Amino acid sequence: MTKEELFRNIQTKKSYLCVGLDADLKKIPSHLLNTADPIFEFNKIIIDATADLCVAYKPNIAFYEALGPKGWESLEKTLQYIPEDIFTIADAKRGDIGNTSELYARTFFDYFNFDSVTVAPYMGEDSVKPFLIKPDKWVILLALTSNPGSQDFQLQTYNGEKNRYLFEAVIQKSQTWASPEQLMFVVGATRTDYLERVRALAPEHFLLVPGVGAQGGSLAEISRLGMNKQCGLLVNSARNIIYAGNGTDFGQQARLEAQRMQQEMERYLGEYLPV
Ligand SMILES: O=C(O)c1cc(=O)[nH]c(=O)n1[C@@H]1O[C@H](COP(=O)(O)O)[C@@H](O)[C@H]1O
């Protein structure tokens, strides 16, 4: 999917919501546990309930890998079930020496046909580039993450420069590897105090912003500080939506929560998106 197509979907749906498909056997409603593939059944109902309200789905690969081959099967069926016009993110946080990254890229782009994959920048250019060889596939690079540990490296000053953080060097350097048509950055919703600095360095890029809801980030702040002229935001929420209910009506409960977010997003799009 191109950046323009993603923006058009945002305009049509009046939403920049990304639903995190972090399905966990320990948390899904118990009535699904005696079906042949409980994780897929769960995802199917969540997708049916939210597809008209979101523009992206992000399965976190850990939730599938943890189940062995069965988990991969649930992931494959889930991917096939997601409607064609919805952007898909393999949240895998990969990155390795070149020939290994190449195989990770084949896994997520060729085998599963995801639109994008989250990649860790730590190993540098040759670990990221193999994910960029297909012009219609995206890298979503970890820049400033939502967790407390982002202090350990990402928020340390870089190269002896007093007022420049490592995450800023990541954002600047990686722009020499790919254009905003293929590169997004992860910026945690709990880090809105740095969003203006991110936008100063990456005015055109889409940002994947996880950490609203369960982790406490504010949709209002993200939207006020992070929106650019093509919206430029995909705001992810997983637990708050997918586990909004735990009974047989969990799909409806998930829909209500997704709808609440979409309606709030519609207001911000009206407020901040230049017409
Ligand atoms: O790359 C990510 O998606 C990610 C980056 C980050 O900084 N923080 C973060 O929470 N995530 C992911 O976003 C999702 C957040 O889920 P909830 O907190 O349940 O909404 C999980 O799949 C995390 O792995």
Automatic annotation (TrEMBL):
UniProt keyword terms in alphabetical order: Decarboxylase, Lyase, Pyrimidine biosynthesis
Reaction it catalyzes: orotidine 5'-phosphate + H(+) = UMP + CO2
Record EC number: 4.1.1.23
Highest taxon listed in the record's lineage: Bacteria
Broadest EC class assigned to this enzyme: lyase
Pathway annotation: Pyrimidine metabolism; UMP biosynthesis via de novo pathway; UMP from orotate: step 2/2
A GO BP entry: 'de novo' pyrimidine nucleobase biosynthetic process
Pfam families: OMPdecase
Orotidine 5'-phosphate decarboxylase domain sequence ranges: 16-254
InterPro entries in the cross-refs: Aldolase_TIM, OMPdecase_type-2, OMPdeCOase_dom, RibuloseP-bd_barrel
GO molecular function: orotidine-5'-phosphate decarboxylase activity
Family, as annotated: Belongs to the OMP decarboxylase family. Type 2 subfamily.
Protein known as: Orotidine-5'-phosphate decarboxylase
Source species of the chain: Adhaeribacter aerolatus
Gene: pyrF
